[in-house]
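Bumping my old thread because nobody answered last time. Still need a sequence for this structure:
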């Protein structure tokens, strides 16, 4: 397997040299280079400042990991316990609670939380002792650095590795994760590439009824292939897709950032990319209805552009024109949801942003959203070529490539989710499903 990854690095490096591409180069730094954002800090959900480690309780969940990737692989598990306190799973099978000081300077967590995976083709089993929410199972080709610092409530938070920061202390390590919530009886887990692609991961869930759910995830070798493809897209349309690829100093592809994560650190990136498309959409739906199928009891709602805003029947707020950054993130500008928004607004936002992301609003039949199937997604430019390329390397196309990838016509699904009550095991594969 080492020979394959050496070859992959050489292929990527060769393509970089030939195309004149300008990828992002990871240059790991130290504590002073850590940038803390809402994307890489796990806060407490309580203001209590002292906690006791909860004893193991009913609902322990076995997690088996098949390593098809390489030697030197490690696993980490982070989340909030049933009291909302940030913690990591230690090598002894119990939760570890980091303790920060009052200096505001991140402190490296030195407890034994790096769980080594067995060799290529072998299975490693760990047991989650109890409920864990807002959780991630991390896999890394080498060891990651986690830190702790006190949050606004004065509670020790966990500072996680940042994919967006090329100077993060863990930037030179290749990693990825699976997100999940487990309340002790019910689990919801997803393979998410909303922020970045780092490792080929797949998962399978078995429930007490015997039901099995499988999301095979990315194919082996996908990271270098996706990097190659975004570099090639730079040549196709002149946009900065190549900068989404983060490489080591030797040219090995480490991860590919989503446009949303990239612009969070580079606000001018892709500036104006969707502007002409948005103007065309606004023009078209000034004279005809854009119908949103809420896929709820509210059914179809008719929307029209007036006074430079899209207004939908029964909706409590209108939608101004989105910027490119709004479309990448689906959570700002017209796509920001506030507490007072009604159910129609909460249904329109994901369906409208999904249509912009996939560029389906001007296609034949695009006046009803969502109605067009997956073969119509990402077929015209501008579009999210990141999402398009990622889905090309997913087995069966399953796995979130943007935040509302679960918006699809009735009967279709592009989200990589497993869920259910009374799980008996969660299986994860690293480096291609088996």
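Sorry it took so long. Here it is:
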């Amino acid at each position: 397997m080492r020979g394959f990854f050496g070859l992959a690095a050489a292929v990527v490096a060769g393509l970089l040299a030939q195309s004149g591409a300008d990828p992002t180069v990871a240059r790991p730094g130290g504590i002073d280079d850590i940038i803390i954002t809402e994307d890489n800090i796990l806060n407490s959900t309580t203001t209590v400042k002292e906690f006791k480690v909860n004893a193991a309780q009913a609902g322990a969940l076995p997690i088996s990991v098949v390593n098809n990737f390489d030697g030197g692989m490690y696993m980490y598990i982070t989340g909030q316990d049933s009291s909302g306190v940030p913690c990591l799973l230690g090598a002894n099978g119990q939760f570890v609670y980091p303790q920060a000081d009052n200096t505001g300077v991140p402190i490296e967590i030195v407890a034994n939380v790096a769980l080594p995976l067995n060799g290529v083709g072998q299975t490693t089993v760990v047991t989650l002792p109890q409920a864990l929410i807002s959780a991630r199972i991390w896999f890394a080709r080498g060891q990651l650095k986690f830190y702790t610092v006190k949050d606004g409530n004065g509670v020790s938070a966990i500072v996680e590795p940042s994919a967006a920061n090329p100077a993060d202390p863990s930037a030179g390590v290749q990693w990825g994760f699976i997100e999940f919530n487990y309340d002790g009886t019910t689990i919801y887990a997803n393979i998410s590439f909303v922020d970045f692609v780092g490792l080929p991961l797949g998962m399978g869930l078995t429930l007490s009824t015997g039901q099995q759910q499988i999301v095979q995830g990315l194919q082996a070798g996908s990271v270098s292939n996706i990097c190659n493809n975004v570099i090639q897209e730079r040549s196709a349309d002149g946009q900065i897709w190549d900068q989404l690829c983060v490489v080591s100093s030797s040219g090995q592809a480490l991860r590919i950032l989503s446009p949303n994560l990239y612009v969070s650190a580079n606000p001018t990136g892709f500036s104006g990319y969707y502007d002409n498309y948005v103007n065309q959409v606004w023009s078209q739906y000034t004279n005809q209805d854009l119908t949103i199928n809420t896929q709820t009891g509210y059914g179809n709602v008719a929307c029209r552009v007036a006074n430079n805003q899209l207004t939908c029947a029964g909706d409590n707020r209108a939608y101004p024109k989105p910027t490119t950054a709004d479309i990448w993130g689906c959570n700002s500008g017209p796509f920001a949801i506030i507490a007072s928004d009604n159910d129609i607004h909460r249904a329109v936002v994901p369906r409208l942003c999904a249509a912009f992301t996939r560029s389906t609003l001007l296609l034949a039949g695009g006046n009803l959203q969502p109605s067009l199937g997956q073969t119509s997604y990402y077929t015209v430019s501008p579009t999210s070529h990141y999402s398009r390329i990622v889905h090309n390397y997913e087995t069966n196309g399953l796995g979130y490539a943007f935040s509302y990838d679960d918006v699809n016509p009735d009967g279709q699904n592009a989200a990589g989710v497993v869920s259910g009550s009374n799980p008996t095991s969660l299986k994860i594969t690293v480096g291609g499903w088996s």
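Residues 59 and 210 are 17 Å apart (CA to CA). Let me know if any region looks off to you.
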